[in-house]
Amino acid sequence: MPFPSQCKYIIIGAGIHGLSTAYHLARELKQRGRGSGEDILVIDKTGIGAGASGIACGVIRNNYYQAAMQALMAHSVALWEEDAEAYGYHPVGYMQISPESMHADIVEIYERQKEIGYTSVLIEGEKDCLEYMRKNVFEDWQAKQITSILHEKKGGYAHNARSVYRLADKAEAEGVRILTGIAVTGFRIDHGSVSSVETSGGRIACDYVVIGPGPWIKDFWEMLGLPSRIDVRGLDGKVHKNLRMWTYWCLQEGTLGLDPSFGMNNEGEMPPVIHVDSDAPLVSSEDGSMITDKTWGIYYKPDFSFKGIQGGTTPYLVDKDDVAVDPYGIDSPEFISGPEFAHVWTSALAHCQKRYEDKYRQYKDEPSGGLGAFSPDNFPIFDAMKPNAYVIADSSHGYKMIGVGQLVAREVLGEEQELLRPFRFSRYETGDLLPESHSPFPWS
Ligand SMILES: Cc1cc2nc3c(=O)[nH]c(=O)nc-3n(C[C@H](O)[C@H](O)[C@H](O)COP(=O)(O)OP(=O)(O)OC[C@H]3O[C@@H](n4cnc5c(N)ncnc54)[C@H](O)[C@@H]3O)c2cc1C
Questions:
Q1: How far apart are CA 188 and CA 225, in angstroms?
Q2: Largest CB tally within 10 Å, which of 46, 63, 211, 369?
Q3: Nearest residue CA, atom 39 of ligand 1?
Q4: Contact indicator for 398, 380 with CB cutoff of 8 Å
Q5: Cα 175 to ligand 1 centre (Å)
Q6: Claim to verify: residue 365 and residue 381 sit in the same structural domain
Q7: CB of 216 closer than 6 A to ligand 1?
């Protein structure tokens, strides 16, 4: 097929958002009699799932302190459920297990889940939490100082590569063309709008561009001539001057090389995804030394794709201006999980369940984890940053947000979506930020 010189809609990035947008835009165009997938070109500099979507551990949850995030996640979970088999979606549920400092937040989340019809159970009090875990999930549960559990009956996790490839298949079946190995290097902007996309293969004229670049958002922000630092009006009304627009955190994940069946629940079945935040002292399972007496957090699940017990801990901030995003993911020499992560995570597993007490030796010494780009308030920006250039910058929340592409497709066609309205760039100026939780993670 010849290299295209023009295409009505160009979508940059073949990750979860670019591909979901491509597929849904094709369908929405057809339904409205306004075109088809043949009007859409997806461009990726490497390949399908080459970015964060290809390494995400795939957790899908509703547990967010922000009502706007909860509503958006409920929409996405409905889309996962629509074609669970194709996307490799495992609706095993999700458990947020928390210390007293997070108790009030969790009650609020639960109340909102009731309002929006997202099925969950709330358990409160240390004794009841321990009993619930031992009776219903893991009889060897032993985590201390837990006073609330939110057990989401929906959500769970999905197989990262499988879901992006199926989305690509679905988009291609609608007539979308996916061009890989072609890098976008700039935009030609005429009268404030993008008239063409400059690529390593040549210039492609377009009417509309959707940019879903994951951790490479900073490059595209610059290409659009947007500022690298901004003033942000905080929730307290104060203006915080000259903040970095994009900040990087390294997401730390890894796998215990045990048969996934080792992590099953009391019935021998796949348990919910477990997320534990705790302020109980964390002690090394290897040598008994104190790791931390501050709040820590982990998540984990048995996972047949990762061939073991897979999960992660809180990410760490990469506090510098120039961050090498490439080579990305497991190819990065700098931003992969190291021995310190392995020590904390395996010790935390042992803190939670007896069966992991002597399993730190099974940690798989292979590259895992990767960079995420975060916005000034750590929440997504979904907005048209030029009249015909829509940016999907999910602030690293996003593999689970498979439905955002459907909503973006509708906005591209001129129909504003209520669910996306809280995520406009203008919130930094107006101070309409999303509320902050007490979680130790930047994305809760
Ligand atoms: C280790 C890790 C674990 C995670 N776990 C979870 C999880 O459990 N649940 C969850 O919901 N989220 C998770 N996330 C976050 C989630 O993976 C991301 O938010 C999401 O995948 C971003 O999707 P995307 O489509 O925006 O970007 P990406 O998947 O990163 O896709 C962007 C694409 O753009 C392409 N690209 C970049 N620059 C150019 C260019 N110049 N020209 C052309 N193409 C270009 C890249 O090659 C890439 O394929 C995790 C992230 C990491 C790093």
A1: 11
A2: 211
A3: 45
A4: yes
A5: 24
A6: no
A7: yes
What is the separation of C-alpha 409 from the centre of its chain, rounded to a whole number of angstroms?
19
Q: Would you call 356 helix, strand, or coil by DSSP?
A: helix
Do 254 and 350 have their domain in common? yes
Looking at the structure of the chain, the number of domains it has is 2
Nearest to 185 by CA among 228, 223, 215: 223
What range defines the domain where residue 391 resides?
Answer: 1-90+156-240+377-444
pLDDT in tens, 315-351: 999 998 899 999 999 999 899 888 999 999 999 999 9
The predicted structure's pLDDT at residue 321: 86
Indicate which CATH number applies to the domain containing 77. Answer: 3.50.50.60
Rounded CA separation 291/281 (Å): 8
Q: What is the chain's Cα-based Rg?
A: 22
* 370 and 389 together in one domain: no
pLDDT for 437: 87
Per-residue tokens: 34: 């306004």
Can you give the pTM of this predicted structure?
A: 0.97
CA 173 → CA 26, 27, 179, distances in Å?
10, 10, 15
Contact (CB, 8 A) for 399 and 29: no
- 162 Cα: distance to centroid of ligand 1 (angstroms): 14
In a shared domain, residues 277 and 318: yes
Say if residue 443's pLDDT is above 80.
no
The 10s digit of each residue's pLDDT in 277-325 is: 999 999 999 999 999 999 999 999 999 999 999 999 999 999 988 999 9
Indicate whether 45 and 182 sit together in one domain. yes
Ligand 1 atom at minimal distance to the Cα of residue 46: 47
Helix (H) or strand (E) holding 407: helix 404-412
Which of 374, 399, 434 is at the close of a domain? 374
Q: How far is C-alpha 119 from the geometric centre of its chain's CA atoms?
A: 21
Question: Which residues contact residue 138 at a Cβ distance below 8 angstroms, ignoring those fewer than 6 apart?
Answer: 265, 266, 271, 353
User: CB under 8 Å to 173, separation ≥6 — which residues?
Assistant: none
Checking DSSP bridges between strand 148-152 and strand 40-44, what pairing results, if any? Answer: unpaired
| 137-177: pLDDT as tens digits | 999 999 999 999 999 999 999 999 999 999 999 999 999 99
User: Do residues 278 and 236 both lie within one domain?
Assistant: no
Claim to verify: residue 330 and residue 280 sit in the same structural domain: yes
Last residue of a domain, one of 333, 357, 374: 374
Q: In the chain, what is the straight-line distance between the N-terminal and C-terminal CA atoms, in Å?
A: 44
- Which atom from ligand 1 is nearest to the alpha carbon of 58? 8
| Spacing, Cα 332 to ligand 1 middle (Å) | 14
235 and 260 both lie in a single domain: no
